[in-house]
Predict the 3D structure of the following.
Amino acid sequence: MSKPSDSKPGASDPLLVVIAALLLVAVVVTLYFAFNGPSKEFTHEPATHLRPIIQDEPRVIVVTREGTGSAHGTVAAAAPHVDEAAKAEVTKPVEKPAAAVAAVAAAPVVSASADGRIHGRVILRGTPPAEKVIAAVKSDVNCGPATPGPAPTSRNYVAGADGGLRYVLVRIVTAPAGAGKPAESPLIDQKGCMYEPYVSAVLAGQPFKLRNSDTFMHNVAATPKINKGFNFAQATAGQVNEKIFDKPEIAAKFQCNVHPWMSAFLHVLENPFFAVTDEKGEFTLPEGLPPGKYTLEASHMKAGAVTVEIEVAAGKGASVAFELAVK
């Protein structure tokens, strides 16, 4: 019988030796990267060269052939260029357009007048925003031919070249009962598919008139908040209707349901000492205010209101210069 071999099974097997060597290499590589990790200065991308990673503050890094980084020597990569002008444009505060910038108005200036009347002028300070063009007027089959020239605009601020502000209500806030006589009854016209005037005033209980001067139908829809409203058609040219509001109310609104851009406002006052400024910003109150001290108010639907104390004596009135500011 032959003797069994003294060598250990598989000890000389070349395959096992190779496997053991590969396992040893894998362990060594794993331990190396576990303790050292990838470079903090570079990262690798497929089919590209090493590129620097900029962390925190921008800095200049030099890339050498060995793939190491240095902060000195010939510059290989620089911080990205920053367009300071573009950066300032983006970060500067947003400014309101010049057309919408308001101004500060001065206090009213009062001087005596020798005619015993109260009169004066209202000036607008600041440049108001551009009014909106009402293009529908020109495109309407009836309104277009009835409106020569360019399309009308909204009438938020109607001011002349020198600042004279139209459509400002100027009134004595409280007057003695029974004093003075009301001015002529106002007429609110519909012409060229716009209400004229845009703002008017009437004494409470005093009749006022509404007229259609166009050759086609309008209707008048009044929507006051205190007085009783109404809605009626004016189908023929020259038609006039008379109405009354018997309670004081500021800015009762009128609108045409046929042409919805058409609107106007009527102030209803409790005493007759009032006026609405004209295209020059001027006003004159009715005569008959007894001597005494009074509060005179100038109010505009967009620019707000301002008051001043005046004194009326026998044969002497007051001339007042008001200023209102764009808001």
